[in-house]
């Protein structure tokens, strides 16, 4: 039955002009082109008018030997992705200077109304088989895809009636081995098929100890936004699929993820001006431990030959909770609860439930095989609120959001060497907000509720020209659509007489993305270079004001250059190089001129990534990668703080050895034990409480067994 051949074809990709971090360097043969499911149109990578990065299973596994931090994995593989904060919160981690839309099997993980910055911590990457990254604004995915799309494709059942695998890891700083700095991780999976039924179940558990920096000091714990250190996480995923016939497949998937701090350490404030980093010491923080808890459920139906068309339908539901740690922020004070001069500690809980559908229908083979049409309709219904956890007060009122979006996409090959694409997506968005009172620190003013609605039509047009077999030139224009941080807007209102119906800061963010580039592939050599410009007449920028982050709606523009090189030296040795340069500017005085630089909370530094993969024998493999973030000059903060970035070089290495049963791996992250302050702490904000160093040299030993 031919449907049994569809799964392997979709799980194997031809990586064109992209770095390949593989435990087993590829042989010199051509694989079937991978279909980029995140494109919604079945486009292959080489026919895409945008930069598309397919991160294969082998690359993910290689990175997982070095780190379990999902943001770090993406940062190691994508130079235009911000350096990881190495915390539970990834606020400020952007793709091409804008927030990407994060999906798991097409299900949105990003929360449009009240982004928590924890979208990368909704699944254990041990559950992920492939990652599709579309860089730049993407109209076909609509809401939230202003910076691009990161689609995490979860693992699929392997052939056979019963397949099991288990892997365990232990990590420790190389400078010492203590119980407080040891980390443990284990994963078990079982999958198979019987007749028309395919199944998969996987369970992961991780307990992380404290991290040490290059100077052998405990890194500062973020008691407020949440931390990966001193935390416990688990993930349970299940899939059950049924083939109705050779062309029809129905699948139910469920994923339950939770990460929670253990609340055994408190931060020790650093001195940023003196170069003294924030550290940690034993102690019990105020309030309850921060956590992230997510239930994601999806029901998908695929028909591969519906009257000659392909139908893809998905219905999903997600329940999302994010608890932040307790602080005595000015935003939380209320003399009616704690009279002055006392200080009130409180913490916030953000809750989101969302459900929706995504349907697309593709007809290929029209006009003698030169025309492909795709139409679809997406819905999203989101209910979000944020409240003060310890005192049960409204912080962000309950917001109901409705998004309805039909789209159409055309792909035409007038001649064999030219592919033209064009499409349009209509976005209708409506907010429903009841009247509410702001917190005392913002005057306790009453804000009148309302039902503001917005609509916009997003367009995209692109071309790919292959003048010769080895060359591929592409150009693209695409518009992105996103909501501002609605919760941040609503909680920040401090003037009486306001109505959400008329509040202009709730207007959507529409970005224009223009890019062009060239790809080349000839035998063992591959390369790609692209230039892009992303602009918004009414953009969104986050800035720290006192002890809170506030949003600024201003004209913004980001442009940059990306390049990749790959070379297969021999069948057993391959090398790769990737580079990203970007700059971002905004209109600080709203006079129409881009007069100020975007800081590290909004754009990434220039970065260079290089790697070398080798197979020395049938049993022994090795992998080395170097990640260099260049110095970056930025404007001073509103308070006059220096926000310039001092770059750093990080080197990681790993070896794998095939035992008679199972595989042993040994990895060293930050091999040179570089002492550095993270990009976020240097250039995103000037704050003594969050002047964090990065993780020092860390040893990870793992064992994996398939049976």
Low-confidence stretches: 1-31
Helical content (DSSP H or I, runs of 4+): under 10%
What's the story with the biggest beta sheet?
22 strands, antiparallel, barrel
In one word, what is the shape?
Answer: globular
Q: What structural class do you assign from the helix and strand content?
A: mainly beta
Per DSSP E runs of 2 or more residues, the count of β-strands stands at 34
User: Overall mean pLDDT score?
Assistant: 90
Quote the beta fraction.
over 45%
Radius of gyration: 25 Å
Distance between the termini: 26 Å
The number of helices is: 6
Sum this structure up briefly.
The protein has helices spanning 6-11, 57-66, 70-77, 366-369, 486-491, 679-683, and strands spanning 52-55, 101-104, 107-108, 128-135, 148-154, 163-173, 183-194, 197-208, 231-245, 248-261, 265-268, 279-282, 291-306, 309-323, 348-365, 371-388, 393-415, 418-433, 436-437, 446-447, 453-465, 471-482, 509-522, 525-536, 541-545, 548-552, 556-570, 573-586, 596-597, 607-615, 620-629, 648-658, 663-669, 698-706. With 707 residues, it is mainly β. The strands form five sheets. The protein has a 22-stranded antiparallel beta barrel. It has a five-stranded mixed sheet with strand order 1-4-5-2-3. A two-stranded antiparallel sheet has the order 11-12.
């Amino acid at each position: 039955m031919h449907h049994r051949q569809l799964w392997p074809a979709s799980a194997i990709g031809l990586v064109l002009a992209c770095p390949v971090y593989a435990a087993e360097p590829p042989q010199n043969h051509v694989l079937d082109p991978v279909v980029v499911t995140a494109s919604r149109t079945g486009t292959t990578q080489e026919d895409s008018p945008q930069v598309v990065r397919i991160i294969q299973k082998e690359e993910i596994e290689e990175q997982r030997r070095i780190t379990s931090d999902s943001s770090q994995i993406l940062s190691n593989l994508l130079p235009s992705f911000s350096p990881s904060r190495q915390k539970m919160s990834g606020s400020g981690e952007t793709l091409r200077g804008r927030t990407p839309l994060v999906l798991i099997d097409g299900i949105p993980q990003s929360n449009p109304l009240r982004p928590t910055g924890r979208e990368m911590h909704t699944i254990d990457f041990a559950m992920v088989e492939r990652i599709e990254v579309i860089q730049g604004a993407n109209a076909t995915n609509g809401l939230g895809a202003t910076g691009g799309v990161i689609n995490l494709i979860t693992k699929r059942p392997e052939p056979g009636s019963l397949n099991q695998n288990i892997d365990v890891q232990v990590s420790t700083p190389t400078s010492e081995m203590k119980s407080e700095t040891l980390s443990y991780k284990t994963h078990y999976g079982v999958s198979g098929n019987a007749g028309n039924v395919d199944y998969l179940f996987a369970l992961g558990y991780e307990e992380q100890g404290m991290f040490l920096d290059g100077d052998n000091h405990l890194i500062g714990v973020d008691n407020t936004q949440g931390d990966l250190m001193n935390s416990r996480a688990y993930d349970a995923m299940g899939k059950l699929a049924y083939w109705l016939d050779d062309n029809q497949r129905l699948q139910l998937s469920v994923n339950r993820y939770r990460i929670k701090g253990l609340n055994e350490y408190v931060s020790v404030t650093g001195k940023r001006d003196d170069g003294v980093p924030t550290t940690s010491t034993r102690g019990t923080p105020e309030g309850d431990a921060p956590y992230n808890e997510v239930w994601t459920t999806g029901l998908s139906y695929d028909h591969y030959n519906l009257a000659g068309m392909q139908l893809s339908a998905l219905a999903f539901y997600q329940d999302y909770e994010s608890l932040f740690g307790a602080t005595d922020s000015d935003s939380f004070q209320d003399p009616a609860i704690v009279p002055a001069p006392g200080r009130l500690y409180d913490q916030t809980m953000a809750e989101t439930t969302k459900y929706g559908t995504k349907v697309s229908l593709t007809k290929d083979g029209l006009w003698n095989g030169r025309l492909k049409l795709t139409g679809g309709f997406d819905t999203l219904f989101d209910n979000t609120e944020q409240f003060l956890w310890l005192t049960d007060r409204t912080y962000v009122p309950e917001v109901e959001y409705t998004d309805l979006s039909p789209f159409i996409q055309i792909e035409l090959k007038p001649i064999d060497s030219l592919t033209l694409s064009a499409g349009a997506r209509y976005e209708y968005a409506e907010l429903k907000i009841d009247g509410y009172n702001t917190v005392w620190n913002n005057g306790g003013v009453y804000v009148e509720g309302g039902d503001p609605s917005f609509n916009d039509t997003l367009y995209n047009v692109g071309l790919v020209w292959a003048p010769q077999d080895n060359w591929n030139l592409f150009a693209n224009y695409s518009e992105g659509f996103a909501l501002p941080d609605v919760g941040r807007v609503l909680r920040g209102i401090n003037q009486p007489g306001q109505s959400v119906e008329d509040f202009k800061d709730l207007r959507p963010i529409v970005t224009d993305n223009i890019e062009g580039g060239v790809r080349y592939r000839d035998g063992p050599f591959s390369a790609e270079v692209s230039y892009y410009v992303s602009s918004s007449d009414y953009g969104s920028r986050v800035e720290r004001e006192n002890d809170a982050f506030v949003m600024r709606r201003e004209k913004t523009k980001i442009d940059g250059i990306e390049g990749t090189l790959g070379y297969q030296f021999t069948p057993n040795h391959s090398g790769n190089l990737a580079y990203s340069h970007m700059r971002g500017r905004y209109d600080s005085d709203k006079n129409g001129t881009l007069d100020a630089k975007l800081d590290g909370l909004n754009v990434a530094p220039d970065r260079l990534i290089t790697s070398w993969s080798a197979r020395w024998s049938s049993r022994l493999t090795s992998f080395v990668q170097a990640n260099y973030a260049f110095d970056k000059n930025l404007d001073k903060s509103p308070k006059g703080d220096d926000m310039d970035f001092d770059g750093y070089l990080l080197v990681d290495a790993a070896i794998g050895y095939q035992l008679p049963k199972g595989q042993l791996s040994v990895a060293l992250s930050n091999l040179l034990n570089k002492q550095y302050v993270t990009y976020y702490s240097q250039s995103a904000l000037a704050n003594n409480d969050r002047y964090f160093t990065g993780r020092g040299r860390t040893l990870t030993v793992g064992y994996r067994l398939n049976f």
